[in-house]
Amino acid sequence: MLTKRIIPCLDIKDGRTVKGVNFINIRDAGDPVELGASYANQGADELVFLDIAATTENRKTFVSLVRQVARHVNIPFTVGGGISSVADVAPLLEAGADKVSINSAAVRNPQLIDDLARGFGSQFVVVAIDARKDYNQWIVHTHGGSKPTDKKLFSWAREVQDRGAGEILFTSMDHDGTKQGFAIDPLTKLNELLHVPVIASGGAGTKEHFLQAFSLGKADAALAASLFHFGELTIPDLKTYLNHSGISIRL
Q1: pLDDT (tens digit, 9 = 90+) per residue, 193-251?
Q2: pTM reported for the whole predicted model
Q3: Residue 130 pairs with which residues in a beta bridge?
Q4: Has 11 been annotated as catalytic?
Q5: Could you tell me where the DSSP H helices lie in 32-183?
Q6: Is 130 an active-site residue?
Q7: What are the start-end ranges of the H helices in 96-251?
Q8: DSSP state of 31
Q9: Which position among 45, 51, 88, 130 bears the catalytic label?
Q10: How far apart are CA 22 and CA 133, in angstroms?
Q11: Where are the chain's structural domains?
């Protein structure tokens, strides 16, 4: 049985870690370097760094901040935000990123997924998919969730996989920041449809929600932000609970 992963997420805006609800009402959550180091020390399996304003502000990810975070963590580190070409990746690799996450650029130019997978390997490419349920269909959104597209979640996820993505980070915009639980139904369907790992994101509020994501949703990893940032749940406590609940987890 593959070990499940717990992944804290650092959403970055203006050099600070922030968190909102349903992708709006953003508030400060602390220093990303300090948080990243703390999560690595607590036993997080990976870390995700998303420069959430890079695309909407039409700029590249803050490489210097990526470098600072990377110096303080010893776990796999995924970076996303503002990556729109193969050329954007080298500076992030040099700064310490282990993987890159693309979202808006992948929708705009799906060939970028192929190019990154061919150039760096599928294991290096994470495609983030932000989706909201609208008229009984899960619609893909871009630009930090602000722009709906004509793409549907399940067909886009399959295309992303077929183009060479090594992992998919699925965020339910309807659940994001609500602490009411992950979107189990689409998560389950994604894991039945795909053979690449799927990371569940959006809605974590209790230890039981993580258990549901792994046991019912069949997620390979679960990502959370505010729950960890504001000290409502610690990674060691969560992992102990999951281990006692029969989930294969690295302690």
Answers
A1: 999 999 999 999 999 999 999 999 999 999 998 888 878 999 999 999 999 999 999 99
A2: 0.90
A3: 141, 171
A4: yes
A5: 32-42, 63-71, 89-95, 104-108, 111-120, 153-163
A6: yes
A7: 104-108, 111-120, 153-163, 184-193, 207-215, 226-229, 235-244
A8: -
A9: 130
A10: 12
A11: 5-244
